[in-house]
Specification:
183 residues, 6 helices
Length: 183
């Protein structure tokens, strides 16, 4: 059965279809960028969990553990959304991290304050990738910014960054009173 626009030669249906494909393609590009940043953030939380395994960091480790689990869920949501938009050509974590600034990070031992600062930076990079900036001629309506997966990423990362920022402020206030091995 042929579509009505094929029978009548109506170019409007073709334009809508082409526009939807273009918007879908733009959304997939943004989701892929968010996926790369989210995988980095997830791995940063995994590293932070490992580095705060000592008893003295129990509450911080619990925080990192909860945020890590939420980031794992976000990665799954992004992968599923990319696949739903037919962008499944390269939905493998290694493909997204290979050759990026993230691929060689997460080595060595770091202080809790440094871990929090790195997590905050990673959250900001995710949020910067997720939120449209200004008016861009290439994105006339920013349809990707209304995608539910992007919304989940923004909400979760915004909430987590606020908690991390508060922890970082608390650590910096407490820094002069703590022994040097605990900063």
């Amino acid at each position: 059965m042929q579509a009505a626009n094929e029978l009548t030669g109506d170019p409007i249906g073709d334009t809508i279809s082409t526009m939807s494909k273009r918007e879908s393609s733009e959304t997939v590009e943004v989701l892929e960028e968010l996926l790369a940043h989210s995988i980095h953030l997830r791995d940063t939380y995994k590293n932070a969990r490992w580095q705060t395994a000592d008893l003295q960091f129990r509450s911080l480790r619990q925080l990192f553990d909860g945020h890590y689990k939420e980031q794992v869920q976000l990665v799954d949501v992004l992968v599923d959304r990319i696949r739903a938009l037919n962008g499944a050509g390269r939905v493998f974590a290694g493909d997204f991290l290979h050759g990026t600034q993230f691929s060689q990070s997460l080595r060595g031992r770091a202080s809790a304050t440094l871990l929090l600062a790195e997590l905050l930076d990673a959250h900001e990079s995710v949020l910067n990738a997720a939120l449209p900036t200004g008016t861009n001629e290439d994105q006339p309506n920013g349809s990707w910014s209304r995608d539910f997966a992007v919304g989940q990423v923004v909400l979760t990362n915004n909430e987590q960054s606020l908690v991390v920022r508060e922890q970082l402020k608390h650590r910096k206030r407490m820094l002069p009173t703590q022994p040097t091995w605990d900063c």
